[in-house]
Design goal:
Elements: E1 8-10, E2 13-15, E3 23-25, E4 31-33, H1 50-88, H2 92-103, H3 116-150
Antiparallel strand pairs: 1-2, 3-4
């Protein structure tokens, strides 16, 4: 009897049927339970479980729900950045680049607004960027919580 006849093969990784321990193929073609592999963490089994799939589904659903708000914030950031760029005499690309760097609070400092009105708009862009980042992080945390609660 073939030793692999009881295994379902997913890509290069053979795995036992649902509910069994994860088995991996080693370099010498022998099968070793994941927890017995030297130097490998036991948490790797989570990657092959439904936890990852549930997280991705929940995350995509959350992004879909918040899409109107996130698109409005992104458009607002872009338009305000173009307004600042027009006042400062920057190119459209430089204005978009600056607004993205400001909204993500990276702030390289290679392009800086000099006029007071532009500086006020840069503060508004930074707050809009923080709001946008916060929404995406909140969706990710909610998706992770829902996935963990589903697979307990």
């Amino acid at each position: 009897m073939c030793p692999l006849s009881r295994f379902a093969v997913i890509g290069d990784t053979p795995a036992l049927p649902h509910g069994s321990n994860l088995i991996v193929k080693t370099g010498d073609s022998s099968l070793v339970p994941l927890q017995n592999r030297p130097g490998k963490r036991k948490n790797t089994a989570l990657l092959f479980s439904g936890l990852t799939v549930t997280f991705i589904k929940q995350f995509c659903f959350g992004i879909w729900l918040t899409l109107p708000l996130t698109v409005c914030l992104a458009v607002g950031i872009t338009l305000l950045g173009q307004a600042v760029g027009r006042q400062e005499g920057w190119s459209r690309f430089d204005s978009f680049y600056w607004s993205f760097v400001t909204a993500t609070t990276v702030g390289y400092g290679d392009i800086k607004p000099a006029k007071p009105k532009s500086r006020v708009l840069s503060i508004i862009i930074a707050f809009l960027g923080l709001t946008l980042s916060g929404i995406i992080i909140a969706v990710a945390v909610q998706a992770a919580t829902a996935a963990l609660n589903t697979h307990r």
